[in-house]
Amino acid sequence: MNGIRMSVAARLAATAMTACLLGTAGTLAAAAAPPTAVAADKAGAWGDTKKWGDGLTITVSKPQKFTPSPYAVGHEAKNQAVKWRITVHNGSEEPFQGVLMTVNVKSGADGENCAQIFDGDKIGTGIEGTVSPGSSGTAVFGFDVPRGQLNKVDLEVRPNLDDHGEHWVGKVT
Fold this sequence. Notes:
Layout: H1 2-22, H2 28-32, E1 49-51, E2 56-60, E3 64-66, E4 79-90, E5 96-97, E6 102-107, E7 112-113, E8 115-117, E9 130-131, E10 136-146, E11 153-158, E12 166-170
Antiparallel strand pairs: 1-2, 2-4, 3-4, 4-10, 5-9, 6-7, 6-11, 8-10, 11-12
């Protein structure tokens, strides 16, 4: 539990610093609010691509179970480590700021929050820098899902502080 609090505290601190630097502190409260569950019929399936009004598209791969390294942060042995490959294509006219994208996962019937796993420089670091208009960026995100809750997993991506989140919902097999 302490690791989860530390992860959330670190994410909120980074969001606050970024908001201050970019002059978007007014939207910080919305970014810090926990993601909400969405009806399965409005959510995408693994592999679907969702589009935002500015031309940005995001594709979330089918989830894969994995074994974190001994140095990973955010994983408990009782849970299942799960990773997704998330690709952002920037169809807008402005560079996409990768650091502003947030990814959250909930699992089970009650929508229990899952801790993000950080494992070296390959899992959990996000899209670094910016993605130029017409280009794409990809990152792998890992989350710690309770083993008994793999039948319903809800992944939410929010491209930046001002955008709404989109959901992908399904089973992890």
